[in-house]
Structures are given as structure tokens and as C-alpha cells.
Amino acid sequence: DGGITQSPKYLFRKEGQNVTLSCEQNLNHDAMYWYRQDPGQGLRLIYYSQIVNDFQKGDIAEGYSVSREKKESFPLTVTSAQKNPTAFYLCASSMNSVIPYNEQFFGPGTRLTVL
Amino acid sequence: GQNIDQPTEMTATEGAIVQINCTYQTSGFNGLFWYQQHAGEAPTFLSYNVLDGLEEKGRFSSFLSRSKGYSYLLLKELQMKDSASYLCAVRQIKAAGNKLTFGGGTRVLVKP
Description:
The complex is a heterodimer of chains A (115) and B (112). Chain A is built from no helices and eleven strands. With 115 residues, chain A is mostly beta strands. Chain B starts with a strand and ends with a strand.
């Protein structure tokens, strides 16, 4: 089955620790995205990548880092510099960005709680 | 920048119709998406509008007026499973990486 997987579904970390969230897709999509969602809020873009070995900051990149070494994988690291990391993190992917009608497909999300 | 507004919450009765409005201000509009998101789950795609008019998909329809910066999602014959948040998202022309900007979402509660 084609899709996007994120692991783990729930993650607990102590304050001051870095943590890496996994995102893998087998849809052969070029573009991948990380969003953060806080309770009762919409999605805010953290980072995105249009192609392997390239990525750009979104609207709230501070305290986060990413890598895109493989087309299928786009891991997100939440660093200790992120002041309020507890949130629901969603990964998404889409086909080549020049196509006008180009929906994003979402993974099941990781709920990160920092204690 | 962009500004996207949706009502925070709406309540409706099973079998009824609900209309969720979305207004936006953006430079270089290039499409509007509606997603459905059940609590704690991933958003799923519902509809896409880039030209003015109504797009119908079964019980769900989406309307766009580019001159007014306005869209709505119409849910007909409401079912209990339609209780969810509905997210409006806008894409700009030449948005790098096909980026979308999302509104805050409208939580719809369907009552028996």
C-alpha cells in the first residue's frame, strides 16, 4: 500500500532533549513538508523540501532542523532551542510542485509531549 | 503575507445542511483546498477550487469567488461521522514547493 508513515504515534521527552520524528513515504513524491498543529489551531509550516538534498524554512522553523538525504525520508529534529515543543506534528508529501492541482497527502501524525 | 479566516466552531443537526465559510487575502491566488480532519488524525483532502464556481462531490460541495476572496464548503445530509474539523488552505502563484497556508479550521459538531 502506498502512503506516508510517521513514527512513533506518541512521544514523550524531557525538557532540554533533542528528539527526531520520522516521516517516510512510498508515493514517489518529490516534495515533503512538516507542519505543527496546536490544540484547536490550524497547521503551521515548519520546513519543506522540493527535492532530495534541498529544503527551505517555513513560517516557524526556529528550534527545528531537517534533512532530506533520500527521496522517501524527511526526518524532523525538535531541538532544545524550541521553546514550546509540545504539539501534534504532521508530515505531508505531494507530487512535483509545478503541477497546478497538487494536493498534499498527510501522514497519521506524531503527538510530542515534553515533560 | 496571507490572511485566512474561518469560524471556529459550528453545530448542526444530523440530516441538515451546514455551510462553512472561508475568507482569504493573498497576493497571487492559485487555488484553494478544503481538508477534513477528525480529532487526532491526519487531514484528508476534500476539494480543490481554482476557478470561480461550485464543485460538487456527493454530499460535499465547495464554492469559490476569487474577486471576493471567499469560499465555502457545503455539507449536505449531515451524518454523525461528519463531526470533524474542516481546514481551508490557500496556495499562491509560484509558491515555492507547492506551499499551502492553512486557516485555523472550523470544528463542526453534528448532533442527533
